Structure formats: C-alpha cells, structure tokens
Amino acid sequence: MRDPIETLFEEIRLLHRRAGEPSTRTIARSLGRGVLSHTTVNAVLRGSRVPHWGPLELVVQALGGDVERFKELWLEARGASDSPAAVPPPRMASPASLIGRRQELRLMQDWVTDLTTGQGRAVLVEGAPGIGKSALLRTAASEAVAAGCQVFWTACDELSQAFPLLPLLSTIDSPAAAAGRGRARIADIFRAESAPGNQMDLVAAATERLLALIDELCTASSVLLVVDDLQWADPATVRCLGRLTHTTQRLPLLVAAVTRTVPQRADLRALRRSIEPAARVRLHGLTEAEVTEFVAGTVGGVPGPRLLKLASDAGGNPLYLTELVDALVRGGTVTTDMGQVEFAAGRPPESLSAAIASRLEFLSPLVRTVLRTAALQGVSFSVAELAVVSGKSLGELVPLLNEASDAGVLRDDGHELAFHHPLIRAALYEETSVPTRAAWHRDAARKLAETGASADRVARQLLPSLEAAGGDGPSDEWIVRWLAEVGQSLVNRAPQAAISLLRVAMRGMPAGVRPRDRLTATLADALYRVGDAAEAARVAGDALDHVSDPDLLVSLLWTLTQSRAVHGRHADSLATLESALDSPSIAPRHRARLLVLAARTHCFAGRVDAAGRLADAALATALAANDRWATSWALAAQTVVLGMKGDSAASLPLYDRALALAGGDPALADLRLVLGINRAVALGNLDRHGDAIKAAEQVRQLADDAGNAVRRLQAQSVLSELLFETGQWDDALVETDIERHQSNEPVTLCVSLSLAALIGLHRGDASAAQRLASADRYASRLGDRVLGPYVLAKSLAHERSGAPEAALGVLLATLARTEDVETVVAVLANAARLAVAVGDKATARSAADRAVTVAGRSDMPRRQAILAYCRGLVGNDQALLLQAARYYQVGSQVLPRAQALEAAAAAAADAGDMAAARSHFTNALFLYTVLHADWDLGRVHARIRGYGISL
C-alpha cells in the first residue's frame, strides 16, 4: 500500500511539472502580493512536512489542479503524519509565580489564541532578573502546546556569546529535530572545510537556512519561539530575531524574546524598536498586597508581620521572595500557629546570594563539587561532557545529579540538564576564585579536546580561561596542536572566537615555523570572514615573506587577494601574484591555481584582454598538470572573459564543459555555483530572459541549500538585474535588499544599490539619492571596472537635476575607458539620447557608428535595437525608432522600449503626423505607468503639451 504522505508529495510534484515547472516566485506573484511568500510556496512544493491546507489549496489553484482531489489526498496524508517535532518548554509555572501578572497573562493568552488562527506577531518581555518573565512565558508555552502549536524554547548564556546562532541552532536545529526532518543539520555548515577561494559567510548562510526552516515549520502548524535571556545573545542571533519579527506579519509565528532591562546593547535597542509598542511587556515588582499573597501561597498559610517585614526587603521580586522564604523554611526559622506562618528566630540571610548559598548547603559536599564543575559549562550542560571534565563515570554521576534535581537545583532541559535558574549557577561559579576558574576551564578544554569534542565545545572552555587570565596566559603546546588540527573548523563555526584563540596560540612563536604558518593562514581567513579585510590582508601579506609551503602560500594569496578586492586594491594583488608566479620552484599545479586567481583579479578590475590571456595560460597549465580543480576554474574564468567581450553565445559550451569536470567533486561545489550564476548572466545577455531568470532562481536555491551565502547574494544580484530589464521593478527592488545580509563584496553591493537608486530616480523616490551615495562607496573599490547599473544611475541623477550635459559626460567617460562590451551595450543608447537632447550631433553620430560595431552580425534583439535606436535618433526617423521598439519588445526590455516609443512619437510630431505621435505617446505612457516611473511620466506629459497634443 502506498504511503499517503509520499503519494501527496508525488502528486504535488506531478502537478508542478504539468504546469511547466513555474518558479516559486512566479507562483507567489500569480496569487497576488502578500498572499503567500515564495518561501512558503517552496515549502509546499519541496518541503518534508505535510503543509497546512490553506497554502496547499492556493498553490493547487495556481497550478490549475483539482482542489477537491488534493483535499482528499491531504486529509489522508495529514492523518498519517506524525505531529510536528518541537522542543518542550520548561515545566508549567506555579500559580504563586503568576501572582500580580494577570493582565500580562491575559495578553499572552490572547496572542496564543491569535496564533492558533494563523496570526503571528513579535513580543518582547522585559524585566529584572527573577521578576517572573520566564514564568509568564512558561504558562503561555504550555497553553500553546495544548492548542496544538509547535513550541521551541531556547535560552542564551554568557558562554554562548562568541558562537553565532548557538541558541537557535541548539533548539530549532537540534539533532532530534533534524532526524525528524530527515535532513542534515544546519549546524553542519560550520563543520565544512572551505576550498580555496570559497570565502562564504557561514553565519549568514546558517541564518538563511534557519529562516527557511522556520518558514517550513510554519506551513505544518503554528509556531511559538521563545528566546530567553536575550541579553546574553550573540549579535547574529539578535539579527536573526530581527528578521523574524518581520516574517511574523505573514506567518503563523509568535516570536517571544525575553530579556533583562540591562545591559542596553545597541542591537537589542534596535530589535526593541522593531517590535510594536503594544507588544512590549515590562514586568515590575509586586505590590505590597501581591507580596503578601505571594508569600502566603509559598508558605501555605497567612504570613506574620515579621515574615512580611523580611519579605519586603526582596523588592517585590518573585525569585528573591521564593529563595528567601525557602531558605527560612529549610533553616527551621519559621513556625506555624493557628494558620499563621511567622519568622521565629535565627539570623535571616543577608542577601539573595546568601539565600542561594544557604539552599545549597543542604547538598552533600560531593554533589556541590560536581555542580561547580557543571557550572563551568554554563546554565545548561551535557552529562556526557560533565563525565569527561569531572573524571567520573556516568554511574557515579547519576545519583549525584539526581540528588541535585530532587533538591530543585537542576532541571531537565530536553537533551541536557540545566540549573534551575542562572543565579544558582552564578552562585556556584563564583564560589571559586578567578585564577582557579581559569585553570579549571583550561583543564576542561583539554579533556574535551582529547575525547574528540567539537571545536566549538572546546573553545567555549578556552575563552573564559583566557579572559580570566586577561588574555596573557601561556600558550600551551596542546592548544597549538589542537588549533592546527581543527582551526579551520572553528573558523567555520565561530570566526571571532577563533581569532582570540589563534592570537594567543601564536604569541611568542617565531615566524617561519610550520605550526605558526598554518595558524597564520587560518587567522587571516577568520579575519576576512568577520569583515576585517584590512587586518586579514595585513596578516596574510606579512606571512608571505616567510611561508614556504606551497599549499599554504596559495591559501594566503587567495585570502590576500579577496581582502584587497574589498577595498579595490587589485593592482597590489596583481603585483603580489606576479612575484609568486616568477618563483622558479613553483609546481605546475600551484602555478595553474595562481594564474586562475590572477585572471579573476583582472576580471574584477575590468581588464578584459589581460584576463583572457591569463585564463588561457591557466587552462593550458592546468591541463598539463592534470589538475581538475584549476582546469575547471580556468574554464570558468574564460566564460567570464567571453561574456565581457560580448560573445556570450560562445561561452555557453564552456559552461557545459566546466560543469562536467566539476560535477561530484566536493572541493568544486563553489565553482558549480559560480558557473550557474555566470550562465544566468550569459542567457540574459542573449535576451533569453525567461531562461535566465529561471537559471538565477535555481542557482540561488542551490546556493541556499549549500549554505553558500556569498554565491546566494550574487545570484540574487543577477536576478535583480534581470527583473529590472524585463520591467518587473517591484520584484527587482525586493531582490536588491542585500545590505542586511552583512555582505561586503563591492560588485554585488554596488549593482544592487545602483538598481534600487535607478528605480527610485525613475519613480521620484526620495530615498534614491541615499541609495546612490551608498553605491558610490562601493564603486570606489572597483578600480578600473565600471558597472552598467551604477553608470546609468549616476547619469540619471544628473539628468533629473537639470544637468543633461553632466549626465552625458558620465556615459561618455565610461564608453571611453571600459573594455566590457556588455557595459557598452548598457549605456550606449542613453548616450545617443542625451547627445541629441543637448544638441551634440557629432557625439550622437559617433554613438550610432559605435552601435554598428556593437551590433555586428549579431541577430540578438538588444544589439539590433541599439543600432536602430541610435540611427533613428540621429536621423529623427520615426520608422527606425519604431523598429527599435519592436526589437526591444522581442528582447523583453520594457524601459528601452518605452524610450524608443517616446522618441518615435516626437519624430512623428516633428514631421506633423500628430495622429501617429498621439498613438506612440499613448503607448509610451502606458509602459511608464506599468513601471510606476512617475518622473518619466511627468517628462512625457510636458513634451506632449509642448506639441499641443491632447490625449
């Protein structure tokens, strides 16, 4: 019998194929803006869980399927599916802990009710330690579970701050949840070794995967995500939550962030501002009457005046009250008489710490020792790791941990144990002196490393050891060995933590020693990943003077070149590469790789001819050395060169050849993405926009699946250009929003910001100037390379400000210096238009002559359109301009077609053919209206009035 779930997914895929496999974005757009996101559509088509009926029904309707039939399949699959896996929240809060929180509890209950109906929101719960924040959320979480929602609960702590996304990965991406989804864990991204040149932002990649996973989870049932102790969160976790606050507007997702009122970090203040004021809950201390009620509920009787006097010192804090009263009860200093509970005798605890210490005195010395060891690991800890660090077997630990749990010190935290409250852990941790704690952390790290623990678990112990020693502790030999072995894995997971450890390990170690050389290469990589390109370049550059290992040399040069590219230092990179290539001892394999790097650098700098020569040399050397890696990359470089020379048709066979070589090799996974991106560009240059958009969307999905954030953003940038050309400006604007991904790659950022500015300038958007100013900063790093969208935006800004001569000057300067034919194609038509507008007939004729060269023998619509358009402008020829408009229509280029129709209308009016002019103006206005190009509409209406034409 066929599995109902598999049957449903097979039928969904079959329906998708029968509909021509439209992209997820196409399906989302067909449903109307804001109905379903393309990510939700993707989860329905390719997800691993049975989706909600609502999204599935909409997708089936969009694809032309039989809704009733699919509803039957869905009901069968839903009945066969397991309930969604979720992380259980901490146990239900006691009734006493909710005293004084009735109003806040009603709010949370209302929000959970809204969640069950599909309405999401972001909530922030603030207050002092122990004020009852977690208790409030525990109650809400229990009600959400009862209502059938998925609940994920995680907490941050001091030891996790150096490890990006650790709280979310440990909960949403837990081993059990990953197994339930039948897929690899997102955390595995950080364990992957990076091939040379694959400088991907792993944190951004993991963030995107987490967001996609949460999106997918929400298609199965509503989700409550609670992040406790947010004040300890790492910056990446805070940024991820900021992203989630926006997705709650379209998903059945309730995000509840719980934080103390201090410290006031800048990123937490920004997150707070992103949450609507009505959803910010601030908890205050209990009133006198509520304190009386709270104490009565805790002691099980009416509190006497002396007991209430002591309780008043707790400042209305429920945790302080609980710990204080518990300490008094355990100490035997309260009596009960006729239902009244009173403080009788003895000395009360002087502080909360004393109250906690008093509570812990009831534990045996052996249990306290084990708990102090557990406190080294944080608020929550692994029992298996505790056994390693403490030197005790599991059999010895279990009874001791059970005793601590029975005493209320520990609680079950899913896959780990946790202290019942962070303050309990803090009291145990601080019982030990700072120097002793540093030694304990170092010893724990070594024991964990010796048992093969993951790099981040070991580093979590080493970092506080260094902090306690002021960063001046000795560099143990085992730390050097350990970092040399797992340093790259640690960089992939937590580059900032790796930098701290690498610097300590390298202290006092002489240059030229192999361990230091390896650690230096790793350090340079880590610095580049955290965005410190200048320091990464300095470290890599200094190391080149003494590194002799050729593999390390290539790694350092790759980091150095990428770091310098961020600041436009292509000339420096090329000088360094030439020096390395001049070495007589360099092996052919390494020479081929360096030639590839040099060719790519020339491409980045816009030097097409030099890039072509080096790419050819790299390919020949790689083939002779039988180096598949270098051969594949050399072919990729050749495809880029051909594209820049305007011969995209000749590049397509090279893509197939390179892909055949790169297929199946994990070290060439990044290259496969690069080839996919460049192929999408080539298809767009050939006016195959439908195929190009599909290719860009596919490679972006592949990059997302692979966790390669850099390639994902590059594919997104290409997609934004294609959408702009085809007149899908609203969608293009969505794709230009990449600054929030923390990218520092100048080409991608310059293109995206320029496109956003260009659209804004055409639409009269006040933010366009700011976007263009941001693009200026990245354009300054490009060296001799010029980018079409940036040049067009700069020119249009001058034209809009009433300076057409300056606008023309920007375009002419580009035409005079660029070697990139596709850039010429992008700007030539506008140069001819502006030259005619300012009366510079010589320049207009020169542009027309160059259009002949550009068009050549090509039958591509855009090339023939430019030729007809430039000639039509020079001769004020209505027929040629209409011919250009038809070519632009075949090539799916909306803005140039509107401009050609506008010019044809003016030519017709100049010739006295007002009927034709009216028709052409009307068609141009329609296209500008579709684009919402308000500035262009105003300009055309002014021209129409100038001719005395009424529409």
Automatic annotation (TrEMBL):
Annotated keywords: ATP-binding, Nucleotide-binding
GO cellular component labels: cytoplasm
Pfam family, one: AAA_16
Organism expressing this protein natively: Phytohabitans rumicis
Protein name: LuxR family transcriptional regulator
Signal peptide: none
GO molecular function term, any single one: ATP binding
PANTHER family: TESTICULAR SOLUBLE ADENYLYL CYCLASE (PTHR16305), TRANSCRIPTIONAL ACTIVATOR DOMAIN (PTHR16305:SF35)
Domain AAA+ ATPase: 119-282
